[in-house]
Amino acid sequence: MLGCLAWAVASALGITALLTASRVAYEVLRWAGAAYLCYLGVRALWRHRRPSTAESPVPVAEHSAGRSFRIGLTTNLLNPKVGVFYLSVLPQFLPHGVSPLLASTAMALVHNLEGLVWFTVLVFLVRRAARLFARPAVRRRLDQVTGVVFVALGLRLALESHRTSA
Fold it and tell me: pLDDT for 14-56, tens place per residue?
């Protein structure tokens, strides 16, 4: 959620104009996002490269709060789709006569509150199914699917051509 807030503030400070005017800046962001998605995908695939022979569920590796925060923030900041939303869609809805920084931040906070509700429900539901997700075969399949999807998204992002509006 902090990443969304950062994108909203960046938009209000004129990063939209920079990314629109500078193809190099846009390409750097696009390639950084593509590389990070591919990294996450390959890491997920590599983690379970051999089938587990364990019959009992293994405990889910827990990350420290700081590590989880860094992973989430980095993923959000390097996700060009989040950037596109905040840099192109959000400015269209800023009210006239209100500071863009104040309006962008307020809109991002509303978006974050909606996200907080959604993620709270999601965490509650996943937590209820923790035993199922802790099974080695299920974890392996989830990581494999996630890895393939992340690599595919990263490759698609890397290979898509720069779109310009007329």
Answer: 776 777 778 887 788 778 878 888 888 898 888 877 655 444 4
Is 164 within the bounds of a domain?
no
In a domain, 165, yes or no: no
In a domain, 64, yes or no: yes
How far is it, in rounded angstroms, from Cα 103 to Cα 90?
A: 10
| Contact criterion met (CB below 8 Å) for 114 and 124 | no
Is 61 inside a domain boundary?
yes
What is the domain count for the chain?
A: 1
